[in-house]
């Protein structure tokens, strides 16, 4: 294993690359969103919402915005009536898929 990079944040608190990774992809919903987009491809907002029955409108919107701001998800808006918005993974988003696939395999093996 490689050595972990340790940094100090603006408050003098130690941070490592694992904390950085978890801050970007951590949490129940971000992982599920990334999984659906990575495995199934492009989805519209309501399709994602149907795939995750426990998520609220506010939470899905927030998590999609966070993933977009971190460069993992691309949001494409089409100027049509009615408006259409599609979400997909970016190249950076696809780079997370081996991690998610390993988590999926581990979870399946240890069910």
Automatic annotation (TrEMBL):
It comes from the Bacteria. InterPro entries: HTH_HxlR, WH-like_DNA-bd_sf, WH_DNA-bd_sf. Pfam families: HxlR (PF01638). The keyword Ribosomal protein does not apply. Keywords: DNA-binding, Transcription, Transcription regulation. One of its GO terms (molecular function) is DNA binding. The keyword Cell cycle does not apply. Residues 16-111 form the HTH hxlR-type domain. PANTHER family: TRANSCRIPTIONAL REGULATOR, TRANSCRIPTIONAL REGULATOR, MARR FAMILY. This is Transcriptional regulator. It comes from Anaeromicrobium sediminis.
């Amino acid at each position: 294993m490689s050595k972990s990079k340790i940094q100090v944040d603006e408050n003098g608190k130690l941070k490592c690359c694992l904390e950085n990774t978890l801050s970007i992809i951590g949490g129940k919903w971000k992982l599920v969103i990334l999984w659906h987009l990575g495995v199934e491809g492009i989805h519209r907002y309501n399709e994602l919402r149907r795939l995750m029955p426990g998520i609220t409108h506010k939470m899905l919107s927030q998590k999609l915005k966070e993933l977009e701001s971190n460069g993992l998800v691309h949001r494409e808006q089409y100027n049509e009536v009615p408006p259409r918005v599609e979400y997909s993974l970016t190249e950076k988003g696809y780079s997370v898929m081996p991690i998610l696939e390993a988590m999926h395999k581990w979870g399946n093996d240890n069910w």
